[in-house]
Specification:
21% strand; single chain; 4 helices
């Protein structure tokens, strides 16, 4: 693993649910020569290898999460802050109500956080 890769992975672990631009800004402080393309490329590699999780948000930049086990997220519609949410029994509920075996799902709940409310 290269020094840039170690740095990027450490930033994702220390600052979960952040964008590639944010990760680049933090990395630039300790590695002034790092390129934005390096950050994007390595986030892509880490996502593909399941070392981190990519949270696609449609019209907004993707977020990167160090927690790779299945879980869902709540995202503030105003500031974009994301947080993990655990909804026990949801998979069983979906299976029962769709009458289909739900193998996996990704859920993004949008709300207004207490800072923006």
């Amino acid at each position: 693993m290269t020094g840039a890769q170690r740095e990027i992975l450490q930033i994702v672990r220390e600052h979960p649910h952040q964008t590639a631009e944010y990760i680049y800004t933090v990395a630039k402080k300790s590695m002034p020569g790092i390129a934005l393309g390096t950050v994007y490329r390595n986030l892509g590699k880490f996502s593909e290898s399941m070392a981190i999780r990519r949270i696609a948000r449609g019209d907004s930049p993707d977020l990167f999460d160090p927690t790779t086990t299945p879980h869902d997220h709540m995202i503030c519609s105003k500031c974009g802050m994301a947080e993990d949410v655990d909804l026990p029994g949801l998979q069983e509920y979906l299976t029962k109500n769709t009458q289909k075996k739900i193998e996996s799902f990704e859920l993004l709940l949008y709300y207004i956080c207490s800072e923006c409310y």
